[in-house]
Amino acid sequence: MSLRNKRKHVMNEAQWEDQRLPGRNQYIVKVLRSTGNNLHMVTKPCGEVHHVSMPSKFRRNIWIKRGDYVLVEPILEGKKVKGEIFLLTRYC
């Protein structure tokens, strides 16, 4: 698969067109800042602040900035990193 086709598929996967609600173990968070090494500090609606990681398939194709909203799936075995970014959202 060429780089152009890969980016097209990753972008389609990352930004869905139909506004689905989060699943049972997913939640929407707001990005506070990027802390490096594909980690982002986020805040949950309840006010809890923690780190989430960016999956490798998104790393060179998707850029997240402060103030963006992302859909996160929790990681239970992590101490510092509490979740992994699942999709970008268009909620505000």
Characterize this entry briefly:
The chain is built from one helix and five strands, in the order H-E-E-E-E-E. The protein is mainly β.
- Please give the largest β-sheet: 5 strands, mixed, barrel
The first-to-last residue Cα distance is 34 Å
**CATH homology superfamily name:** Nucleic acid-binding proteins
Can you give the mean pLDDT? 84
Structure characterization notes:
The chain is mainly β and about 90 residues long. The chain has one domain (about 5-90): Beta Barrel (OB fold (Dihydrolipoamide Acetyltransferase, E2P)), CATH 2.40.50. It has one helix and five strands. It has one helix at about 5-15; strands at about 25-35, 40-45, 50-55, 70-75, 80-90. The chain has a five-stranded mixed β-barrel with strand order 1-2-3-5-4.
Name some characteristics of this structure:
37% strand; mainly beta; five-stranded mixed barrel; 92 residues; OB fold (Dihydrolipoamide Acetyltransferase, E2P)
Show the helix and strand layout.
Layout: H1 3-14, E1 27-36, E2 39-43, E3 49-53, E4 69-74, E5 81-88
Parallel strand pairs: 3-5
Antiparallel strand pairs: 1-2, 1-4, 2-3, 4-5
